[in-house]
Amino acid sequence: MNIQKLELLNPIREKLNSIVICDYKQAQLLCKLIPATCPFARDIRFFNQAIAHIPPLCQLNPLYEQLMELRFRAQCYLTQHQQQTSDKLATKALA
C-alpha cells in the first residue's frame, strides 16, 4: 500500500523536476515559498532552559528532495542573474 502512495506522487515529482526557471521574479518567489530550513524544528524552552526538542520533520515529506532541488535551481538562477547584472554595470563603468 505504501508503494502505491509513492507511485501516485510520481507525476507531481516529474512536474516539480520539469519546472524551468526563466524569470528573476519567479526565482525570487520560489526562494520565498520554499524554506531553506525546516520551519517545524523547535526547542521548547521553559525559563530559558530547553526542556524538549522537536526535530526537523521535513525529510519525512515525500516531495522534500524535489522541493530542495527546485529551490537550489532558483538560487542558482538568482546568482547567475546577479552576476550578469554586475558584469554589465562594470562594463558600463569602464566605458
Q: Could you explain how this protein is built, in words?
A:
This protein has one domain (2-94). Helix content is 60%, strand content 12%. The protein contains 4 helices and 2 strands, in the order αααββα. It has helices at residues 2-8, 10-18, 24-33, 64-94, and strands spanning 42-46, 49-54. α3 (24-33) crosses α4. It starts with a helix and ends with a helix. 4% of the residues are buried.
Assign the structural class, choosing from mainly alpha, mainly beta, alpha/beta, alpha+beta, or little secondary structure: mainly alpha
Q: How do the helices and strands follow one another from N- to C-terminus?
A: HHHEEH
Tell me the number of structural domains.
Answer: 1
- Summarize the amount of helix as a percent range: 55-70%
Side by side, the strands of the main sheet go 1-2
Q: Which runs of at least 5 residues are low in confidence (pLDDT < 50)?
A: none
General shape: flat
Q: What's the overall average pLDDT, rounded?
A: 85
* Rg of Cα set: 19 Å
Distance between the termini: 66 Å
What's a quick, concise take on this entry?
With 95 residues, the chain is mostly helical. The chain has a two-stranded antiparallel sheet with strand order 1-2.
SSE blueprint and pairings:
Layout: H1 2-8, H2 10-18, H3 24-33, E1 42-46, E2 49-54, H4 64-94
Antiparallel strand pairs: 1-2
Helix pairs in contact: 3-4
